């Protein structure tokens, strides 16, 4: 699939907030308590929060395009920007989302392959991510690309404590 990726900058802030919010809502709103979900998205996807993440020199947002259509985005974290302290030779794929219009078209797989290549070019030992314990289809997706579960961590949607499986792909 012919995808192109664009590194996001502050000029992309409005669009990044919009696509971040819309893809997260599409993926998870129906699966969570409405009050907790509303509280979470107001904090996690606020303009100021996304701006702070964009300004972090160890976090990187990318838009994915098919032709001139924005089809998704992803976020990578390295060093201290990672949500878990796995060191300088680990790269975290914190977010990977495809817009609802382009679901089930192989976009996620194409983005993941791009991310794996980026991690290799950065000479990382492994690429890791967290996937919600109730998202069996996402776990199977990552397993098809060689990711293996190696732990878990908690996160909150509002006041609801949830668990992510930590999965990694060894690159060396």
What's this entry about, in short?
With 172 residues, the chain is of the alpha+beta class. It is 35% helix and 34% strand. The protein has a 7-stranded mixed β-sheet, with helices on both faces.
Which terms summarize this structure?
172 residues, alpha+beta, Aminopeptidase, 7-stranded mixed beta sheet, 5 helices, acyltransferase, YpeA/RimI_acetyltransf, acyltransferase activity
Task: Characterize the structure shown.
The protein has 172 residues and is an alpha+beta fold. It has a single domain, classed as Aminopeptidase. Helices cover 35% and strands 34% of the residues. The chain contains five helices and seven strands; from the N terminus they run βαααβββαβαββ. It has helices at 13-28, 34-44, 47-55, 107-121, 136-144, and strands spanning 4-7, 59-66, 69-78, 90-98, 126-132, 148-157, 160-170. The chain has a seven-stranded mixed sheet with strand order 1-2-3-4-5-7-6, sandwiched between helices. A hairpin with a 2-residue loop joins β6 (148-157) and β7. α1 (13-28) packs across α3. The longest helix has 16 residues, at 13-28. The chain is globular and about 45 Å long. The two termini are 26 Å apart.
Overall number of structural domains: 1
Q: How would you write the strand order of the largest sheet? A: 1-2-3-4-5-7-6
CATH architecture: 3-Layer(aba) Sandwich
Residue share in β-strands: 25-35%
Radius of gyration: 15 Å
Fill in the CATH topology.
Aminopeptidase
Could you give the count of β-strands? 7
Number of helices: 5
How far apart the termini lie comes to 26 Å
Question: How much helix, percentage-wise, in residues?
Answer: 25-40%
Rounded mean pLDDT is 96
Looking at CATH, the homologous superfamily is Gcn5-related N-acetyltransferase (GNAT)
| Category from helices, strands and their pairing | alpha+beta
Order of helices and strands: EHHHEEEHEHEE
CATH class, named Alpha Beta
Shape: globular
Largest sheet report: 7 strands, mixed
């Amino acid at each position: 699939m012919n995808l192109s990726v664009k590194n996001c900058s502050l000029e992309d802030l409005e669009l990044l907030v919009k696509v971040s919010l819309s893809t997260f809502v599409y993926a998870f709103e129906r699966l969570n308590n409405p009050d907790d979900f509303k509280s979470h998205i107001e904090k996690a996807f606020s303009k100021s929060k996304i701006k702070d993440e964009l300004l972090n020199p160890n976090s990187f947002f990318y838009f994915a395009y098919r032709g001139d259509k924005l089809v998704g985005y992803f976020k990578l974290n390295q060093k201290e920007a990672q949500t878990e302290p796995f060191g300088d030779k680990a790269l975290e794929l914190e977010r990977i989302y495809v817009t609802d219009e382009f679901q089930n078209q192989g976009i996620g797989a194409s983005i993941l392959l791009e991310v794996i290549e980026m991690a290799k070019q950065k000479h990382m030992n492994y690429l890791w991510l967290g996937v919600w314990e109730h998202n069996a289809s996402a776990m199977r997706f990552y397993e098809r690309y060689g990711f293996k579960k190696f732990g878990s961590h908690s996160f909150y949607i509002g006041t609801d404590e949830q668990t992510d499986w930590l999965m990694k792909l060894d690159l060396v």
